[in-house]
Amino acid sequence: MFHSAHSRRHWPTLLLCVLFSVMGLDLSAQLFHQDSLTLIARQFAFTEGPAVDKSGDIYFTDQPNNKIWKYSTKGQLTLFKDAAGRANGLYFNHQGQLLACADEKNEIWSISKDGEVTVLLSAVDGKKLNGPNDLWADKKGGIYFTDPFYLRDYWTRTKPEIAGQKVYYLPPGKGKKPVVVADDVTKPNGIVGSADGRYLYVADIERNKTYRYSIESDGKLSRQTALIDQGSDGMTLDHQGNIYLTGKGVFIYSPTGLLIGHIEVNEPWTSNVCFGGKDRSDLFITASTAIYRIPMRTKGVD
Fold first, then answer.
1. For the whole prediction, is pTM greater than 0.70?
2. Which of 115, 211, 251, 276 is spaced 20 to 30 A from 226 at the CA atom?
3. In the CATH scheme, what is the code of domain 22-295?
């Protein structure tokens, strides 16, 4: 039975919900049009780790097939590297080198323009890393990376050699040792830093949380803040400070952690995301066996 008095007591709450929905739709419309999402290619086993170079070209991995692909600003899709170390997360540092989480042997790589590999890190105090998953480089050349443990069928070991799944910082310079900068996470996965180098964002996919840390002058982290009640396989930021998380489609959060948009992607899983194109205004989404692009009314950050 309908009770008008009871219903009136809930009008303020209902009104807020309606207003929030309308505001959310308005904010989404300011950022993108859902109908603009386009499929670039579907010829892969599982796509991961999109990264943008200085020209705006996108590099991404087909992890099970052990390849890194390149999608140029001219719309050309070419194979960049075969035998790619089962690379997962990728990132271009400010020196223009392609960094990779090489999952096959649990290493961090630097890859030159012609595909030559330099192994930057493979162990900590003689113990193999769990399995570097995603990474971000600061302007000084230091590398932050997540090191969760996902057992692979191509490994010979069945257990981790390092206790705990943590976030590390590899300082710039040859022969530097990585330092643990966050051990207050359960299974860190996606990671990205702000353009000004003040904040680092880390997704804990097991706790279903995204944390923000302050970056200190020595590269260490402080002031963990649980910013978003959602974990993620990968993430990126735009120049307004909005945070893009993957999973089922792409979720867009404001700098304060308010959900302001959702890009629907008709795939079982979206693994990672980054801005690219000549002016960094296209969002590229690696999603299961495919890669997508959607024009945005905002831009990414270098």
1. yes
2. 276
3. 2.120.10.30
